[in-house]
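<derive_structure_tokens>
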Amino acid sequence: MWDNHQSLDLVANWLFALAAVMAIYLISYWVIHLPAFPLQEMNIRGSNSDGRLGHVTREQIDGVVRSEEMGNFLTVDLEATRKAFDKLPWVSAVSVRRIWPRGLEVTLEEHVALARWGSDALVSTHGEIFNAASDERLPVFEGPPESSGEMVRQYDVFNKLLAPLELSIGHMSLSPRRAWRVHLNSGLVLELGREQVEARLARFVLLHDRSVAQLNQRLSYVDLRYPGGFAAR
């Protein structure tokens, strides 16, 4: 082999290439970790037009920054940073990007709470269930967890149907058997059942002034599951 000049040239070229790759790697590693690229600024903003955050606090942001090993401008792990901010209670989505030469921009999209989900969670306008604290006065939803998106859609439909009566929903439930029940803020409970729920509610609204409003007693419960009318007490 040592007499084979072609083999020797091949080995020499291979060793030279390996040495060059290792040199490039070491130089790159040294340059990347130079103190010339410190991460000096992190701009945290909301995803709305004015960039403000409604629920995420400065203390929560500082806690994330302190808990993460950010590195410098070139070594910071953008995905790890995104995941760290995504764990905050009110955060729905996060995007992170480098801002040359020494900064990061973190954009946080916050949940918009539509209702309470039972007694220990919230549901957003997109039907996402999330755990966060809120002192807002919100309607309450109860149903199977997989039904949260459907309940958000039906809540909007039901409220539009009730609008002519100036009534609003305080509590709405969907049973495991897919039966709907609506509690109005006036105290009235509407039993809608499992079928034709929108048509039943529309019929109630249509007949309200001609029947329910004419009664001298205050109603607490209306069963709309009858095909030609409803029962009330």
Remarks:
- Helices lie at 5-32, 58-67, 78-86, 148-162, 197-208.
- DSSP finds five helices and twelve strands in the chain.
